[in-house]
């Protein structure tokens, strides 16, 4: 080494403690004996860290910054158009069994001025019960199948590349779209909806797509920029939701249920082509390194040893995604506790947020609101616009100018969501529903901020495993929330239809307590400023 040379370099956070960056400074003087190697642990705030958490050998930076956001937008639009149609299509098909449909384009709408104990009201309650059960069956079918494949796809992306994990959910959505198209074209029995959902979920569903997208994002962004980019991806779903809610309601009233499903199918095909042609791989497959070793034995072993080696390698390949997930919790105790609290909060709030959205259409079609598909679209679009405004205010104003950190925004969102759910449950009229939506302005903040914070404090080579855990918990929470709140709505809607939202508010409050506990558990760590 040349004399009077100063070498200064930084190493990425180690698995021993991802919250600490290890900085090594080597100072060389003219004498070899005067060389000093000093290693100091310097705390790093994830909300101000501009470094990329990977080595250049493992990740290839894409030429364009905005790559998979169009794929997220098309996937969201296709999926949400299906959800909007299926809920009301089930209501229509069940009502058709009782000869209670106005025409073939929309379900029977109640009269808000009729008596609560009238025969019409009782019939509507019966139709609502059966329609909510079919909605629950479809959610359960897709959720259970997705839970079986999601950990495998997302965790394996750490060493097999991100691109396959992005492609498989798009293929699954395309399969589901084809199934729905056939069901509506030929008026197939309702149990075909379950078959279609199960086949589509073999691709991992929205949970697998979210896990792959956020792992892709973690590879290509710094920890400082990650919360903003995660929120932007969430925002694409909100943008798609606004357009779909405004468009599909009118579309169903004018043309029936089939055109929106055809539109969804066309979007899934376009999305599939986009991912295949325009989304590059950023983490080349390094599976061979995981299974380095002789693939065959040429002396003294013969065929038996070759077969034994191949079997062991196959077994390791099958177990590696799950061992990769387990390794995330073997790093250190503090990180394990932090992730456990974050994961519990994600699961419970997913149950609250998704579960409430599943029953929202039925709740709005019931007394005392009696809204039709068009007005439901207006209300849902207004709620989504409000959510996006809340995200923008939270990230661009509260985070930037008020210096509120990532977990602080999560707590703000959970407080807003809890108040909004309570107001929805006691709303006496349609204007009160809009007021409740305004109270829940920041309800969209918790999930992206919890994801972003978990990614910030986790090692760069475990991002796929991390988001596979989050994806599994989101799907589990969505499934449990949909099942519990749908059954609860069916059991209580005759005497207090808003009771389900009081239960949703309670679970949201529990998620709030867990997130506060995560903040308190990090109060003594060097990165306590990153919590609030």
Automatic annotation (TrEMBL):
Main location: membrane
Record-annotated membrane-spanning stretches: 71-91, 136-154, 166-186, 192-218, 230-251, 257-279, 339-363, 375-398, 407-427, 433-453, 465-489, 495-520
Region (Disordered): 28-54
Compartments it resides in: Membrane
Gene Ontology cellular-component annotations: membrane
Extent of Low complexity compositional bias: 28-45
Entry keyword Thylakoid: no
Molecular function (Gene Ontology), one example: transmembrane transporter activity
Membrane topology (UniProt): Multi-pass membrane protein
Keyword Transmembrane helix: yes
UniProt entry keywords in alphabetical sequence: Membrane, Transmembrane, Transmembrane helix
Pfam family, one: MFS_1
PANTHER family, per the entry: FI18259P1-RELATED, ZGC:174356
Record's protein name: Major facilitator superfamily (MFS) profile domain-containing protein
Organism: Macrostomum lignano
